[in-house]
TrEMBL record:
It is found in: Membrane; Plastid, Chloroplast. It is a multi-pass membrane protein. The chain crosses the membrane at residues 60-80, 100-118. Belongs to the ELIP/psbS family. One of its GO terms (cellular component) is membrane. The lineage of its organism: Eukaryota, Viridiplantae, Streptophyta, Embryophyta, Tracheophyta. Signal peptide: none annotated. It comes from the Eukaryota. InterPro entries: Chloroa_b-bind. This is Early light-induced protein. SUPFAM superfamilies: Chlorophyll a-b binding protein (SSF103511). Keywords: Chloroplast, Membrane, Plastid, Thylakoid, Transmembrane, Transmembrane helix.
Amino acid sequence: MLNYDHEQKQVSTKFSDVLAFSGPAPERINRRLVMIGFVTAIAVEIAKGQDVFAQIADEGIPWFLFSSIVLSVASLIPLFQGVSVESKSQSFMSSDAELWNGRFAMLGLVALALTEYLKGGALV
């Protein structure tokens, strides 16, 4: 049985610790971005029939940059306040669930792009 500690665990708030290669921010931000990116790519493909590469060419870069900035700032604020993600975990919405969902979204986005590249067009 999983044991979730709901107390706020203090972590280092030093800029170099938070943004270090093995720190709490880089992978967390990347996971969140790719989860949003994967869902958005599928939704736009269903709605407009555009593959991932067409989406990037058709105003995808500004949307990606905007999303990256907003999500990065929103993810960094609690980390710089010393709040760990594990301390905010609940049984259903745990940090482990976010970790695995992000990893599966990374694989899904790569598989989607590769499939569309090999197929020569949109999957749907």
